[in-house]
Amino acid sequence: MTTVIVVGEGPTEIDFVQKVLAPPLRASALFLKGRLVNGRGGALTYARVELFLRNTLRESQNTYVTTFFDLYALNNKFPGFYEATKVRDPLQRASLLETRLHESIVQIAGCRSDRFFAHIQPYEFEALLFTDVEQLTTIEPDWRSFTAQLRDVRAASASPEHINDGPETHPSKRLERILQPGYDKVRHGPLALQKIGLARLSEECQHFATWLERIRALPPLRGAQP
């Protein structure tokens, strides 16, 4: 049995972990547990994240810990933040930030390097919903008429994870503006991704797929040393 604690920044990410990510992995004896930073959502300060990850890693030497944070509006105190601003591609930018976060947390927690790996989603959780807008618009009857608009948004970017991070054009802002009656992140997000499924997400979202494959490949840590 392998236990992975997924630390998220909001209730939607935790709901996604528990309802979409975790169920299909149980058959492989992989058990994912979602946790909110300090048990609550809201804007992430790096000080909160650092302390929470350190304490979580020190709870048990037999668990892995990973993250599910958004690249969009990431706190500028995160390790490597200003270094990453020089990287144009969002997937490469997220990868750099993940590397710097890994280095920092492993040092602070004093844990085995392989027990912690970071995931930062380009540009945010809602990008995943653009994987299959036809499935997304089946959730509410009145949304069917917006399929073409959402399809145009998706077609304008190399992948859902490249939909840009401008204040009025990042993925969640586009969904809020286009989908009426209003898109509700907590209610609609995980429901849409249940319909879309992990296989389709992995086809369209390379950065997400890399993280998922890493989780699937984790060996048990039973008896591991810190």
- Outline, from the CA principal axes? globular
Question: How many discrete structural domains?
Answer: 2
How many helices? The count is 10
Share in helix: 40-55%
Radius of gyration: 17 Å
The quaternary structure here is single chain
Distance between the termini: 18 Å
How much is the average pLDDT?
A: 94
In short:
By secondary structure, the chain is an alpha/beta fold.
Structural account:
- Helix 1 packs parallel to helix 8, helix 2 packs across helix 4 and helix 9 packs across helix 10.
- Strand 1, helix 1 and strand 2 form a beta-alpha-beta unit.
- The chain is globular, with a radius of gyration of 17 Å.
- The chain has 226 residues and is α/β, with parallel strands linked by helices.
- Strands 1, 2, 3, 4 and 5 form a five-stranded parallel beta sheet that branches.
- The protein has two domains: 134 residues; 77 residues, no CATH class.
- The mean pLDDT is 94.
- 46% of the residues lie in helices and 12% in strands.
- It has ten helices and five strands; from the N terminus they run βαβαβααββαααααα.
Secondary-structure blueprint:
Layout: E1 2-8, H1 11-25, E2 30-36, H2 46-59, E3 63-70, H3 81-84, H4 90-109, E4 116-117, E5 120-121, H5 133-136, H6 147-155, H7 171-178, H8 185-196, H9 198-204, H10 206-216
Parallel strand pairs: 1-2, 1-3, 3-4, 3-5
Helix pairs in contact: 1-8, 2-4, 9-10
